[in-house]
Specification:
mainly beta, Neuraminidase, elongated, Wnt receptor activity, Laminin, Wnt-protein binding, 6-blade_b-propeller_TolB-like, LRP1B protein, 2 domains, LDLR_classB_rpt
Length: 179
């Protein structure tokens, strides 16, 4: 799945399949300006930062069990969001400090370091990576991903895929090659 935020005409947090199909709103009320998003892949939670409402909130992948983690003026200056173990990590854009926030109750806020001009944050650790498994976009004997001549996008599951073409090409009737 692909998770994303939008604060155009109607602010929301959404998800869809990697090929863009099955687009679903998971948060569409009491939300104004969601500017950062982080996923807990193990427990299947979506965290987001709303700078207008000055809050950090969480829901499960279906948009249920919504909770406010923390709220207040300090949220207005945060950008970027990552989750790892018991904490959320974000950046204060006023002083470029990396903050660690307890993700269960919003307490235990601690400045860890300072990075000039930082706007985004990611945690890279082996435990945050999903276990590898075979999938529909693996290369075929000729090296074509999922048998697609240009792009292979996972669909509704890791066993299903959709072929797409680069700009200027159209998908042939076989659903795999581009012309």
């Amino acid at each position: 799945k692909l998770f994303f935020t939008d604060y155009g005409n109607a602010a929301k947090v959404e998800r869809c399949d990697m090929d863009g199909m099955n687009r679903t709103w998971i948060v569409d009320s009491k939300i104004e300006q969601p500017t950062a998003l982080a996923l807990d892949l193990i427990n299947k939670y979506v965290y987001w930062l709303d700078t207008y409402l000055e809050s950090v909130e969480v829901v499960d992948y279906q948009g249920r069990r919504r909770q406010t983690i923390t709220k207040g003026r300090q949220i207005r200056h945060l950008c970027g969001l990552a989750v790892f173990e018991n904490y959320l990590y974000t950046i204060n854009s006023d002083n470029f400090s990396i903050l660690r926030i307890n993700r269960y109750n919003g307490t235990d806020v601690q400045a860890l370091a300072r990075l000039d001009n930082a706007k985004e944050i990611r945690v890279y650790q082996k435990r945050t990576q999903a276990a590898g498994r075979s999938h529909a976009c693996e290369g075929d004997p000729h090296g074509a991903p999922g048998g697609c001549s240009h792009l292979c996008l996972l669909s509704s599951s890791y066993k299903a895929r959709t072929c797409r073409c680069r700009t200027g090409f159209i998908l042939a009737s076989d659903g795999r090659s581009c012309k």
